[in-house]
Write a structure and sequence with these properties.
The complex is a heterodimer of chains A (about 325) and B (about 375).
Chain A (H helix, E strand, L loop, with lengths): L1 H17 L3 H31 L1 E4 L4 E4 L3 H8 L1 H32 L6 H8 L1 H4 L2 H12 L5 H6 L17 H25 L4 H9 L4 H12 L1 H16 L3 H7 L10 H11 L3 H37 L1
Helix pairs in contact in A: 2-15, 3-15, 4-9, 4-12, 4-14, 7-9, 7-13, 9-12, 9-13, 10-11, 12-15, 14-15
Chain B lengths: L3 E10 L2 E11 L4 E5 L6 H9 L6 E6 L2 E2 L10 E4 L11 H11 L4 H14 L15 H13 L5 E5 L7 H18 L2 E6 L2 H7 L2 E6 L2 E6 L1 H6 L4 H6 L6 E10 L2 E6 L4 E3 L4 H5 L5 E6 L5 E2 L7 E13 L4 E7 L10 E6 L10 E7 L4 E3 L5 E3 L6
Classes of the chains: A mainly alpha (about 325), B alpha+beta (about 375).
């Protein structure tokens, strides 16, 4: 027994010496994640940046450095410009409607009523289900021959029989609406979480201070939601600008190019026309658009705050 | 200025009764404190006075006007909340000015009144700051300012000091009392802190489980607690309550304490607590309990052993296990306040005297049967 104890001591010390310090341990952990990040994010990013500066020939398997040629092509190409404009329209409809609906839903769901728990869970569902499924549901709904919309509206004489909803003029609007259905619940979720952190006493204080429901909303609820609004707008805009799945599943960008938003065009350049360089350059422009919008929101909401502070000072 | 009357106010929630048939009147300009442990219904009662909640039964009168179902903004009241509840995105000035703006007071008058209140509450240097840039005490002053600027007839306070540290709380107690003197308005104040209640109130309404236990000035509540529960709730440290049975030993009627000790009572006193064999309790405050030989007070002698000591600097609190033999089952422990320089070792025998003049006697139902209240 005594022998075993003394023998164990040097062994334990050796084990302690072998042990890493906290800093070493942290570095090892971070290193793993960093390598993984580099492999799945950094490497493809650098590779596509490299691609965007080269002209590739699939048949000859050659790569030729062309500098900013693809970028120049992208910003002058009428196809890219048309797709960019459709992206702007699509994003504007999607973000404005999703934003307004999500705030409205959140305000309603924040009220106390029987069954609110179930409804709060249900409202997130459209966001949770796959966009391909959403597209399928909408394509059934909008189908000219067997669609629910025509079955409802045609007998009432509002539209003619076999009315084509996903038409040249309306396809972009309808894919936007379908995307709102997918996107609004996410904002609702953010807003609902934020609304629930507003202390009840603030509303009580305002009631005693003679503030009616409109004042209470304007002076307590809205200011409290400012930061959430920034997050919601950034997330929604980025989601809309880079949207692909739903639109691809619902219309493939058609009819013709009626709903061909920018990410769809990138897809076609890359996978249908094998113009890897141009596709890469276009997607960098797309990324720049998202970042610019996010920064814009940030500055806008920040500025407001600064302005208000100086106004009161 | 206005008085407040609660007449049979009851508030039921779902299956339970939060406030059960409370009737009391708060005089014009009086400072009344609702005191009780959490869940006793004091905040619910205050919310009903404020109009944030409505009574299920009963009526509330403010300045003679029935207001039980009047919205809060039409009651001429102002309230200070436990969570302080300042509007976080507004400056201190805007916070204090908010109720005046809602009441459409002229701009120049708002500036003047805000300045006056800010000066009174010493928050003038912070008027341009936002609540998050203030300390807890400053925030509470601003919240009081927001209430005071309206010059309401009735001020309601819901545990306004409970989020402050101990030192600040003591300072604010004095300031609130001065504010009350200065404004001359009616104050209704809710707290679970009996020191706050004792130091500030004109009258205390002691509540428990939705019932009003006693409504009286602080000194009266301390001297003549209506029952055993109030006796042990008000006073710090709490009054010692020795539970037992009424019995006779060696021809003397007294209380046979659970755990062994026998406390003989003065002639005739035991009869008032009930018949022999019935349960009763003797109460004595730690500051009234004496160590034998310290004072010449005439009282009940009882022996015990030192169970624990708590020196707090100015005083020494000694927990004494009552009864002859140490370590007996169910022996009751009483606390006494004594000279800080006294030596008391754990396990040491100690003889106590319960002065007759300081004794309380409670009957089986817990009601005080002794001492009788002296005519004022």
């Amino acid at each position: 027994m005594a022998g075993a104890q003394t023998a164990a001591l040097p062994a334990r010390e050796a084990a302690r010496a072998r042990q890493m310090s906290d800093t070493q341990f942290a570095l090892v952990i971070i290193l793993g994640v960093s390598l993984l990040n580099a492999a799945i994010i950094f490497v493809p990013l650098v590779y596509s940046a490299w691609l965007s500066l080269h002209e590739s020939n699939v048949i000859l398997r050659t790569m030729e450095f062309v500098g900013a040629k693809h970028y120049w092509t992208a910003i002058t190409d009428p196809k890219v410009l048309a797709a960019a404009w459709r992206s702007v329209v699509f994003s504007a409809i999607a973000v404005v409607l999703s934003f307004a609906l999500s705030l409205g839903f959140a305000l309603v769901l924040n009220e106390d009523f029987p069954g609110k728990g179930l409804l709060r869970a249900l409202v997130l569902l459209p966001w949770a289900i796959s966009q391909v499924v959403t597209a399928t549901v909408f394509s059934f709904m909008l189908n000219p021959n067997v669609g629910a919309l025509n079955a409802l509206l045609a007998p009432m004489g509002i539209v003619g029989p076999s009315h084509v909803w996903l038409s040249q003029d309306m396809a972009l609007i309808w894919v936007s609406v379908a995307f709102v259905w997918h996107l609004a619940p996410l904002g609702t979720f953010f807003y609902l979480a934020s609304l629930q952190t507003i202390p009840e006493d603030l509303y009580n204080a305002a009631r005693i201070d003679r503030a009616g429901p409109v004042r209470r909303f304007a002076h307590i609820t809205l200011p409290h939601l400012r930061h959430t609004t920034l997050i919601v707008l950034v997330v929604m805009t980025v989601e809309a600008v880079r949207q692909f799945d739903l639109v691809f599943s619902l219309t493939r960008g058609g009819p013709g190019t009626a709903s061909q938003i920018l990410p769809m065009l990138v897809f076609r350049y890359n996978f249908e026309f094998s113009q890897y360089g141009l596709a890469a350059a276009t997607s960098f422009i797309l990324t720049a658009m998202s970042v610019a919008l996010a920064v814009g929101y940030f500055l806008l909401l920040r500025k407001k705050k600064v302005k208000k502070e100086t106004a009161n000072g | 200025m206005a008085n407040v009357v609660l007449d049979g106010v009851t508030r039921r929630f779902g299956g339970g009764v939060a406030v059960d048939n409370i009737s009391l009147d708060v005089g014009d300009g009086e400072f009344v404190i609702f005191l009780g442990p959490s869940g006793c219904g004091k905040t619910t009662t205050l919310n009903m006075v404020a109009g944030l909640d409505s009574p299920s039964d009963g009526e509330i009168y403010i300045g003679g006007r029935a207001v039980a179902h009047t919205p809060p903004d039409k009651r001429d009241i102002a309230m200070v909340f436990q969570s302080i509840a300042l509007y976080p995105h507004m400056t201190v000035f805007d916070n204090i000015a908010f109720p005046l703006r809602r009441a459409r007071v002229a701009k120049a008058e708002i500036a003047e009144r805000v300045r006056k209140v800010a000066e009174m509450l010493k928050v003038e240097p912070f008027l341009d700051r936002r609540p998050h840039q203030l300390s807890g005490g400053q925030r509470q002053r601003v919240a009081i300012g927001r209430a005071a600027v309206r010059e309401p007839a009735v001020f309601l306070f819901d545990e306004p000091l409970s989020s402050l540290d101990a030192k600040l709380r003591t300072e604010m107690r004095v300031e609130l009392k001065m504010l009350h003197e200065r404004l001359g308005a009616t104050f209704i104040y809710v707290t679970h802190d009996q020191v706050e209640a004792m130091t500030m109130a004109d009258r205390i309404a002691v509540m428990r489980d939705g019932h009003l236990m006693q409504y009286a000035p602080p000194r009266e509540i301390y001297r003549y607690p209506a029952n055993k529960w109030v006796a042990s709730f008000v006073g710090s440290p709490a009054m010692n309550i020795v539970e037992g049975r009424l019995a006779t030993r060696d021809g003397k009627a007294g209380l046979e304490a659970a755990g062994g000790a026998f406390l003989p009572l003065a002639d005739g006193l035991a009869d008032r607590a009930g018949r022999a064999g019935g349960t009763a309790a003797i109460g004595i405050r730690p500051e009234a309990l004496l160590v034998a030989g310290d004072g010449a007070a005439d009282g009940i002698a009882v022996t015990g052993t030192v169970h624990a000591t708590e020196p707090v600097g100015s005083d020494l609190f000694v927990d004494v296990r009552l009864g002859e033999a140490a370590g007996g089952q169910g022996q009751q422990i009483v606390k006494l306040r004594t000279d800080p320089d006294r030596d008391a070792a754990m396990g040491e025998p100690i003889d106590l005297v319960l002065p007759h003049g300081k004794l309380y006697l409670f009957d089986a139902a817990g009601a005080r049967v002794h001492p009788a209240m002296e005519a004022a």
